[in-house]
Design a protein that fits this description.
The complex is a heterodimer of chains A (about 80) and B (about 375). With about 80 residues, chain A is α+β, with helices and mostly antiparallel strands. Chain A has a single domain, classed as Translation Initiation Factor IF3. Chain A is built from two helices and four strands. Chain A has a four-stranded mixed beta sheet, covered by helices on one side. The model of chain A has no long low-confidence stretch (mean pLDDT about 95). With about 375 residues, chain B is an alpha/beta fold. Chain B has two domains: about 180 residues, FAD/NAD(P)-binding domain; about 140 residues, FAD/NAD(P)-binding domain (3-Layer(bba) Sandwich), CATH 3.50.50. Chain B is about 30% helix and about 25% strand. Chain B contains ten helices and 22 strands. In chain B, the strands form seven sheets. Chain B has a six-stranded mixed beta sheet with strand order 5-2-1-9-20-19, covered by helices on one side. A four-stranded parallel beta sheet of chain B has the order 13-12-11-17, with helices on one face. The model of chain B has no long low-confidence stretch (mean pLDDT about 95). The chains are: A alpha+beta (about 80), B alpha/beta (about 375). Chains A and B meet through helix 1 and helix 2 of A and loops of B.
């Protein structure tokens, strides 16, 4: 059964939100959804670029107050 | 109050020494005790491995006897933990001993996982272990020209190491007079050459100036060690003559085996540094799941907060400090110059121009580390 995991990478710079997503993606099963929280504006474009290149699936991306909530499904 | 520290690396040693000094009155009155369990009687200065890989330090310079670094009131045993029984406040060791604690500090560090990528172990050199660093030096020494590739796994300790290592490769071949015969290509998993944006902005012109090629969005999938080809999940390939890898890391096997955290990364409160669900268990250094750099620097600043809070809890019943995400890392930039990255949860790194003074400060710190780990710096 697919799980959703929240990764809180708000206010972090090293190794940074996208690297945190990659780390947790390795732990996830195919079909799992990872929700990345980030206060870094660049994350909103960095994540889709990585997701599209590597072949996972963007589920949603929205900014709530000052925090980006970016959901990605592990596709392979 | 029985304080048990598992792990004798940077974080564990600083916690132990700081606590021993803060709780000296309580220890002398036998109201507190500090015990450290480690898998080794030696303490290694891990940042020195990069220097070993380039023939600038000898392996034996990286080690001190662990007991020599500890305050005399600390009970130290070389007896690695095999079982954590957190609900019973006890651990069981390899020798079969059971240690009960009131407060536990897990400081077990992290390890490389080269075997997770097919072909990587047999096809690459890495400076992330002593044997690897010595082997890499010998391979560099034999190298007369061709393509040198660097690949980076996620996560890994010392996030700045890929940049430092590629600058060191450039300097090494320049010094040998063969830089024009060597193509250096750096591969990085995300869409810039370093995860810290300001480091990427600073380093890119340096890469261009040094003629270092790079490919971003390259996540290593496998190494064809026989034909010397690296292949990415994104579908690209590169033929190499010498492959340098910074492998993916996990926490230690004992953490995974005891199911304390997936891939060995223990869920940790980012300010109090307590393990989620266990207020009497602190986690320090690489083995946390915190979204901070896995570095000795982070372990150092975390250790200071942990020891301050454990002492205050014992003395007045409440913690007094919070970890603010502080990290301070030197960055060797080549040509005997260095800069540094200083940041926390609220303030991003703001790199200053590299200079010789900072490089020599880093060289000094390679020796001052032994004072730092005693909790005196």
């Amino acid at each position: 059964m697919s799980e959703t995991k929240v990764i809180d990478a708000c206010n972090t710079y090293c190794p940074g939100p996208l690297m945190e997503l990659i780390t947790y993606m390795k732990q996830a099963e195919v079909g799992d959804i990872l929700e990345l929280l980030s206060t870094d504006q660049g994350t909103a474009s960095d994540v889709p670029e990585w997701v599209n290149k590597i072949g996972h699936e963007m589920v949603s991306s929205e900014k709530v107050d000052d925090i980006w909530h970016i959901k990605v499904r592990k596709a392979k | 109050m029985r304080i048990l520290i598992v792990g004798g690396g940077t974080g564990g040693t600083i916690v132990a020494n700081n606590l021993a000094r803060r709780l000296d009155p309580e220890i002398r009155k036998r109201k507190a005790s500090i015990t450290m369990l480690s898998a080794s009687d030696q303490h290694m200065y891990q940042p020195g491995l990069l220097y070993v890989a380039f023939g600038q330090m000898m392996p034996d310079e990286l080690y001190r006897d662990q007991e020599s670094l500890l305050e005399t009131t600390i009970n130290f045993h070389v007896d690695p933990v095999e079982e954590f029984k957190l609900d019973n406040n006890q651990v069981k060791t390899k020798s079969g001993s059971v240690y009960h604690y009131d407060i536990l500090v897990i400081a077990t560090g992290s390890r490389t996982m080269s075997h997770k990528v097919p072909g990587l172990e047999e096809g690459s050199e890495t400076f992330y272990t002593e044997a690897g660093a010595v082997s890499m030096f010998k391979k560099l020494r034999e190298f007369e020209g061709g393509k040198v590739a660097m690949v980076v796994g996620v996560p890994h300790k010392c996030p700045i190491a890929p940049v430092e290592a590629v600058f060191a490769l450039h300097d090494y071949f320049v010094k040998r007079g063969i830089r024009d015969k060597v193509e250096i290509k750096y591969h990085y998993p995300i869409n810039r050459i370093h995860s810290i944006e300001n480091v990427a902005i600073w380093a890119k012109p340096e890469f261009d100036r040094m003629g270092i090629e790079y490919e971003t969005l390259f996540n290593l999938e496998e190494v064809d060690a026989e034909n010397k080809v690296i292949k990415s999940m994104e579908g690209s390939e590169y033929n190499y003559d010498l492959l340098i890898s910074i492998p993916e890391h996990h926490g230690m096997e004992v953490i995974e085996q005891n199911e304390l955290g997936k891939d060995g990364w223990i869920p940790t409160d980012r300010h109090q540094l307590t393990m989620d669900g266990h207020d009497n268990v602190y986690v320090v250094g690489d083995t946390t799941n915190l979204p901070v750099s896995k570095t000795g620097s982070a372990a150092h600043f975390e250790a200071e907060i942990i020891s301050e809070n454990i002492a205050s809890i014992i003395k007045i019943g409440a913690p007094v400090s919070e970890y603010d995400g502080k990290v301070y890392c030197f960055i060797e930039a080549g040509h005997d110059k260095a800069t540094y990255a200083n940041f926390n949860y609220q303030n991003p790194p703001d790199l200053k121009p590299a200079n010789k003074s900072m490089h020599w400060f880093k060289m000094s710190y390679n020796q001052m580390y032994w004072t730092s780990v005693r909790g005196l710096l």
